[in-house]
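Data availability (excerpt). The following record was deposited with the supplementary files.
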Amino acid sequence: MLYEAAGIARFRQRIDKPRDMDPLELVKLNLLVNRTSGRAEIVIGLLDGPVALEHPDLVRENIRPVGEAGRAACAQSDSIACQHGTFVAGILCAARGSTAPALCSGCTLLVRPIFGETTTANSSMPSATPEDLAAAIIDCIEAGARVLNLSLALAQPSSGSHRRLQDALDYATRRGVIVVAAAGNQGTLGSSAITRHPWVIPVVGYDLQGRPLAMSNFGESIGRRGLGAAGADVTSLGVDTQPMMMGGTSVAAPFVTGAAALLWSEFPTATAGEIKLAMTHATRRRAVIVPPLLDAWAAYQAMKKEKT
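Predicted structure:
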């Protein structure tokens, strides 16, 4: 079974048009972003395609490759894997003032590509095996990641077991590393080996009017432990320095990842469990298949109350 990049549902050059709500405002991240740009000791693991590391809007001194240094940079700027990785990296750690959301430009970003820049005969989407993903999770944790961003999903949600992936996610649990994962874009009900794991925060996409996207996958585990974020008409970095607009759960996931990193930057002594609790309100039992939108400012206020 292959994992594919989630969120290529819409990938086009930016166009100017009215917007209902800013993606940061949608999840109340604007106030938190204005408060902090993050700390270098808060390390985010990006498990995605390679990144256009020479992009002028990336904070390159805060980006570190994991594994072979040459694999972290794009070799084919027109590949979907490169475009996808660069776009997500821009959401997480582009320079403030760029066209990207640039959530945690002060944080350290580990680039651990799992998607190659060539596609298979069976799919035009970049893909990776569960074994590839499991190895990348462990590599990033060993390299010091505190939060992992998985903007990928099973092409077909499945209840089948993936032992090595399960073991890697269990390792993240034991190490206190938060794992944020896209729910997927097949528009189905169900779960995968990722979204089913109790430590993972699954993320679905919402439009800028606050409505869940029909393309998102939903399900009991996603609704119970997940969050929603902007997954439509989000602008971030394009490989050729021209901003791009993109949609899908891949786009939504890094908003949740970035929120976790910013909260940890503000409360560096907090545990992973405390950060997750503040973000997901895990003490509230949810009997729904659609998770609520992230409220990053409410999470900040909850953490502030807890720590004072």
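Summary of structural features: Confidence is low (pLDDT under 50) at residues 9-19.
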